[in-house]
UniProtKB/TrEMBL annotation:
Protein family according to the UniProt entry: Belongs to the UPP synthase family.
Keywords: Transferase
Matching HAMAP family: ISPT (MF_01139)
Protein name: Alkyl transferase
Top-tier EC class: transferase
Enzyme Commission number(s) of this protein: 2.5.1.-
Any one of the GO CC terms: dehydrodolichyl diphosphate synthase complex
Reactions that this protein is recorded to catalyse: n isopentenyl diphosphate + (2E,6E)-farnesyl diphosphate = a di-trans,poly-cis-polyprenyl diphosphate + n diphosphate
GO annotation terms (biological process): polyprenol biosynthetic process
Amino acid sequence: MSWVKENCLSFFQLFCIKVLKTGRIPQHLALIMDGNRRFARKVSMACKDGHSRGFDKLSEVLKWCLDLGIPEVTVYAFSIENFKRSQEEVDGLMELASDKFKRLLDEIDQINEWGVRVNVAGRLSILPIDLQALISKAMLATRQNNKLQLNIAYGYTGRDEISRAASHIIDGVKNEELTAEEIDEELISQSLDLGEPELLVRTSGEVRLSDFMLWQVDRTVLYFSNVLWPEFTIWNLLAGIIHFQRHAPPALQDKANTPAQQEFLDKYETRKWQKLEEIVACS
Ligand code: FPP
Ligand code: MG
């Protein structure tokens, strides 16, 4: 299955999307794709195949998001906690990710046509080295795209993201790029891997955040769906969006950075891309 599944909606479903688009659409959707193993057990398939069906569902959801005009989607694909699962399952998930990133690079023209920019969030260094190289290549190859930003949280937890941002800011102060007075909520937010989602959907009936985007969900509308991720349908997503339209707080204006904050953040961004280029060069 490729990254964006084409022609997966009926005329009636597309009509319903049009109706919903007359109201407010979340500009950033976060997804905790939970329930792959329960789905696998339910239909008597191997756990690995349950995760693979989870990826297929993601490719459908990405097409729905393009149709809905949602410009940013963040998915929780592998948490640092997931390393505690059996070696067989961890290896299976790493293999699945490697296959999918290889496929993305093979189909790069199609991805660029869709305008999908892939951004992997998390602690890249704890992943297998060949997966790090594939991820770096995918991020570099899709960097210029701007229709849909797909953030994949991989080797990620929210607390780890906050502690990495804190140590990076401390380095900035030590290197005299920033003064202590310049550390504020906005700087911390912008030093994180991920921005604030407007709507967060978790499937499978679990009603926890499981260390996902902890800093960012302050104003996020949360929607918990009972269906298992591989069984998630367009109707489940539209129900989440209606929930968002009923409960969304007013959008906030971004606060301007000071010149020093902006320079610090720009340097951080440049270093990030340089690191990815180094990983590719060493592979
Ligand atoms: C949670 O279900 C799902 C995961 C831990 C993995 C999700 C990964 C994918 C959908 C594939 C994504 C791959 C890429 C490259 C983006 P679970 O295993 O916790 O299932 P359970 O709750 O039923 O036990
Ligand atoms: Mg689970």
